[in-house]
Amino acid sequence: MDGFPRGQCYDQPMPSLSFKGKALVQNFHLLVPYHELKLVKSKSLTPKVSLHDNLVVHGDSLKALKSLLPYYAGKVKCIYIDPPYNTGNENWVYNDNVSSPMIQEWLGKVVDREDLTRHDKWLCMMMHRLKLLREFLTDDGVIAASCDDNEGHRLHSVMDEIFGEECFLGQIVWKTRNTDNRLKSNISEDHEYGRSDRAIARGRKIERSDFQNPDKDPRGPYVTDPLTGKATAKDRPNLHYHMRNPDTGDVYKPDSSRGWITDEPGFKELLLDKRIWWPENPLTGNPRKKRFLSETKERMPFSTFWSDLKGQSGADEVDEIMGRRAFAFPKSLEFMTRVLDYLCEEDAIVLDAFAGTGTTAHAALALNKTDSGMRRFILIEGEDFADTLTAERLRRVIKGIPRGKDEVLQKGLGGSFSFAEVGHPMQLEALLKAEKLPSYENLASYVFYTATGEDFDAKRINRKTSFIGESAQYDVYLQYEPDLNYLKNTALTLDIARHLPKGSGKKRLVFAPTKYLDSVHLEENRIEFCQLPFEIYKAVKRNP
Prior knowledge:
By secondary structure, the protein is of the alpha/beta class. Helix content is 28%, strand content 20%. It has a ten-stranded mixed sheet with strand order 1-15-2-14-13-3-4-6-5-12, sandwiched between helices. It is globular and about 65 Å long.
C-alpha cells in the first residue's frame, strides 16, 4: 500500500484549497464541547449496555465524534464515510454553530442547487469533521470516503491538506448504474469514487521490504501481527488462557483487560501450522502471528475500477430486511464488505460517521460470521431514523429474518450493539448551576482525557476509591456524584487523602468539588488537586 513517490516535495509548501468560511472553521472542532453519551437500554441489543460494545450513536456527527474521543482516540483501524454528495437535491442542512455572522446566516437552511455557496458550506461541514476523524486512527489506520463528481476534486484537496498528500493511497472507481447514462459530451456518468488515506504522522506503511524471513520459513518472507486483543476476562473468558512455547516451555499470560484475539482451539491450529512467532522470553514481548508476503493481498491498489459488483445499490437489500422502501440509494452490502475486507484486519474497530442504513456495520458482522473475526463497529447517524432504520436493520440481521432469501440472513449473523444518544454538553456553566449534571462515567472520561491526553478505559473505574484510571504520569481520582447536595458537601480531606490506594506510586491527580488540605499535606500525599467545576484542565502542560 505505497503512497505516490514525492521526491523532495516534502520540504515544499503544499497548495491548499480556499473557500468561504475556511478561516472561521479551521479550529472549530477544538471549541466543540464534549457531550454526554447516554446509553439507551431499550434500543440496544445486548445483555449489558456499554460504550465499549459495538455502538450506534444518534446525534450530530461533530458532537458525537468529539464525545467519543476519550474512548476511541488512536484506536480505530478503519474509518469509512459516505457524506452528502452535495448534488443540490439531498436537502441537507448546515448546522455547525460557528460564531460568525456569515455562518450564522447559514444555520438551519437547506443547501440546494440554487445556493451559490453550497460548495463552501459543504467544505466547512467536512473540514472539522475530518480533523476530528484523524484523531481516531491507529498508527496504521486508514480512512476511506465515498463521493462523486459534485465534490470529488474538492474532497481530494481538503483531505490532502488534513492528512497529507504523501499519505494518499489510491482511488477506487465503481460502476453504480447498469444504464448507459451519458452526458451531452458522451462522457459516461455511471460511476462514483472512493478515496483512502492514512493519517499523517501516525506511523509508517508496511512496505514489501518489511517482510523478512529470519528463521528461514519455507513459506517465505513474513511480517508479524499482534495476537493480543481488546476483550476483558469478564467479557470473553475464552480468550484468556496461557500460551506455552512448546520448544522452550515459556508461558505467556494475557493482560486481564485485553486477552488474545483467538480462543485456545484457534491457538492450537496456529501452533500446528507453525504460524506463531515467539519472542526470546516473556519479558521481551508476546507471541505474534506470522503473515506471509505470498498470502498478503494488495490492499487498495492505486487505480481500481470495480465493475463486477452484482448490485450497484443496496436499496433492494434494505427493502428485504425492513419490509418496505426505506432509503433511496444506500451502499450495497457487497460493496461495503469488499471495502472492509481490503482495509482492515479481523480484530479492527470500524467507524462510520454518516451511517445511513447501517450497511457498514452489517458488512462487519457478515465478515465476522465468515472468518470468525472480532471486528467492532461505531456508527453515528444524526437523522431521526437512527433507531427505526439504522439500528433496526442491525437488530434484524443479528437475530435473523425468517423470510430472508438466503440461509445466512434467515439464521442471523449474531452479535450485539449498544445504542447511545448524544446528550447535554459538559460545560462549566452547567456544573456551576447544577443543571444537566453528567453521569459519573461521562465526567470521568472527560476529565481523564482532557487532563492527560490519553485514552480512557471505563473498566478501570472504582467508585469506592474514586479511582478512574492511570496515565503515564498520574493515578487519577474523581470525587463526584451527579447530585447538587453531594457537590456542596464533599471535599478532599486529610483522612481521604491518607486512605487513597497506593496505586502505581505515581503522583495522584485528584478532581473534587473542594479541598481542606494545605500545600504541605498535598505534597506529602503526592496529590495534585483540581477543583470542580473546572475549565478544560491540561495537567500535561505543567510538566517539564
